[in-house]
Amino acid sequence: MDQLNPNLTGANADEVERRGLNGNPMRATRHHVMGLVCVVVLAVLVACRRSDTPAPVNTPESTRISAKASAELISPSNLVLDPFDREVRAYIEQTQPLRQEAAQPAEAVPGHVTSPASAEAAVRARQTALAALIRTKARPTAHQGDIFSSASADVFRQRLSAGFTSRDAAPIRHELQEQNDERKGDPADLKINSAFRAPRIPPEIVKLLPMLPPPLEYTFNGRALLLHDVDADLIVDILPNAFPEAPPTSPVPEAESHSPHSTLPLFPVPNLPTGVVFAAIGDSGTGDGAQMEIASLMFRYFTEARRFSFVLMLGDNLYSDDYTGEFALPYKELIDAKVPFYAALGNHDRDLEKHYKPFNMSDADRYQFDVSNARFVALNSNRPDDPAQFAWLDQAFKDAGSKWRIAFFHHPLYSSGDHAQQSRDVIRPALEPALIRNHVHVVFAGHEHLYERVAPQHGIRYFVSGGGGRKLYHLHLSDFDEFGISEHHFMVLEINNDTLFYETISHTGQILDCGFFWRPDADIQTLDKVGEAWMTDCKAAVAWRPATVATTKTR
């Protein structure tokens, strides 16, 4: 486990007194709307200054990594699983033209780029059209077992049984239970070629099974393993009794709302003429009081403190697939103000969200965009071992040059909450080499319903920001944590040349954390007088905190 690096390339409020800010410090490297539903496509309409305006989104297709490549990268399997792989490939090839055909009614929805209601309607139109095409043209006589053949079914059951008896059995049960806390379909409706709401399989189990190409994924219902076409929201095949035991269930959590609402004066990031300001939220799509309060405070910050140019969404954007109640209504004021949102997919999200125009994903689960001297890259951490994603990532940063290299996705590599073991044993080994190889400077993730600032690991800064609305988790600090707290919050950040300022604001408006750091490869690493004055105010803003570097406050 990496330890705290004493030579930090920046400062937070707890470090100001012991380090000082002058000179050249040491470097380091809802309601558902079935008629019309959407939110304004806010792709590149944000800022007053040109440098604040995000450039067009680049997707796998636009960066010359073929979408077909994923279908060719199913993990190697033994001879018994070869028929399964062949059936999967055949399904993808058979349905690909239908996907293109299904996009046409979506594009025909009036206002699907500019109206929140219309955008959701376009997503629903695409899904409905594709499901109908698959039922009538591709698989009108589909039966259970067409893809999960009897021979491959035995192998799936053996692998799942082995997982439940391995040293990973406890985290497997825990992650299945966490996935099981969402709204699910009626088992009586579970049948081939039907729509069915089911939770996705967590990465701990995905790695035991043959890799699937998008848009297929494994989901589950009780002990049954499901093969799900996420674009059509259609059950492709069912493997009954796949799991050796029924996954543990959990009630749908509801976060407490807070009283009183935010009344504290807001502390803005520095007002720098060339600075680019953006916000970040994670695990926000609940539609409950806690999300509404954070959303309201974000708009208050936007109007009273500093205007941010866009918002990063770190996954679990829509827990109940409610584009209106979990996104368009909570953030209506920001949407009306033409603030773009850029989303990454979380474990509770449906992949159909990539077609939702206000999320600016351009129909892809991974994409990139530039703002001023920073490149932002969104990944799909639900597929942490996807070699096609790694190949795309290498291309995404290839021409980034001296820009800030910023990645955002859902599952954190370093965390000290309920998913700490998943972070350590699954996500970190899968993603960290690619992040290091591409010289990423900063990573933003959610998943843990709390806030953490992690010390630099292999030259990379990590923030965990999952306090956007869901019920909070307990925090048990690790050696790699510089600061952490379990509280609902959002982040605001400002990039000014080679310096990045950050602050984390609770539902009351209280500053939970603030500070700055330099890009590790920057030639000049000094703060100007505005930066120094801001850091002095930052220290005062967090004077309420204990004297220790981090706090274990939980709820």
Short description:
By secondary structure, this protein is of the alpha/beta class.
Please summarize the sheet with the most strands.
7 strands, mixed
Task: Give the proportion of residues in helices.
Answer: 25-40%
Low-pLDDT stretches are 1-9, 17-50, 63-77, 549-555
CATH topology of the largest domain: Purple Acid Phosphatase, chain A, domain 2
Characterize the overall form.
globular
Q: Order of strands across the biggest sheet?
A: 1-17-16-15-5-6-7
Give the DSSP E fraction (strand runs of 2 or more residues).
Answer: 15-25%
Number of domains as seen in the coordinates:
2
**Rg over C-alpha atoms, rounded to the nearest angstrom:** 23 Å
CATH class of the largest domain, named Alpha Beta
Count of individual helical segments: 13
> Mean of the pLDDT scores?
87
**The CATH homologous superfamily of the largest domain:** Metallo-dependent phosphatases
Question: What is the N-to-C succession of helices and strands?
Answer: EHHHHHHHEEEEHEHHEEEHEHEEEEEEEH
Structural class call reads alpha/beta
List how many beta strands DSSP finds: 17
- How far do the termini sit from each other? 27 Å
CATH architecture of the largest domain: 4-Layer Sandwich
